[in-house]
Amino acid sequence: MDAAFGDALVRLLPNLRRYALSLARRPDLAEDLVQITVERAIAHAGTRDPAQRLEPWLFRILRNAFIDMTRRQRSEGTRVDVTENPDILSTDGTAVTEARLMLQATQAAMARLPPDQAEILTLVCIEGLSYAEAAEVLGLPKGTVMSRLSRARLALAEALGIK
Q: Which GO BP annotation is one of this protein's (predicted)?
C-alpha cells in the first residue's frame, strides 16, 4: 500500500461511516462495516484500477460487506449473550444429550461425504463464509459453489434421515 492510497483512505473514512450508518442504522455495526471495508481495501489495493475513483470502489466494498453481514445474521438467527441472560442456559439433560448425539451423527455423516461437498459445507455452514468468499477460497465460480452446497446439504440430510 502506498502513502497516497493510505491518505485517501483516511480522508474518506467520514464518508464511509456515513454510508455504513445509513445501511446498518446502528453505530456499532456501522463501525464494524467501516473496519471490514478498510481491511478489504488494504488487502486488495493491488487489484484496484488506479484510473478509477477510490470512493465508489470503497462504497462497493462496504455495501458487499453489509450484504454479507446481513446474510450471515439471517442464517445465524438471534444472538443472545448468556452472561447477560443466565436464565436461558439449558439445564435439560435430555435436550443436551440429544444435541450431542445429533452433533456426533452429523460429524460422522460429513466424514462420509465426498471431499468437495464436505469442504463446501465446512466453509459456508461452519466457518460462515459467504458464497462469494467460499468461491474465492476454492477458486471456483460462485454458481458452482452454490450447486455443490445444495448437493452437499441434500446428501447430509439424507445421511441423517432428515429428508
A: DNA-templated transcription initiation
DSSP per-residue codes, 39-76: HHHHHTGGGS-TTS-HHHHHHHHHHHHHHHHHHHHHHH
Mind giving me the DSSP string for 96-134? HHHHHHHHHHHHHHHHHS-HHHHHHHIIIIIS---HHHH
Range of the domain at 117: 93-160
Q: Say how many domains are in the chain.
A: 2
My answer on whether 101 and 144 are in the same domain is yes
- Give the CATH number, domain containing residue 32: 1.10.1740.10
Condensed to tens digits (0 to 9), the pLDDT of residues 24-69 reads 888 999 999 999 999 999 999 988 888 888 988 999 999 999 999 9
Q: Rounded to two decimals, what is the model's pTM?
A: 0.49
d(CA 99, CA 114): 25
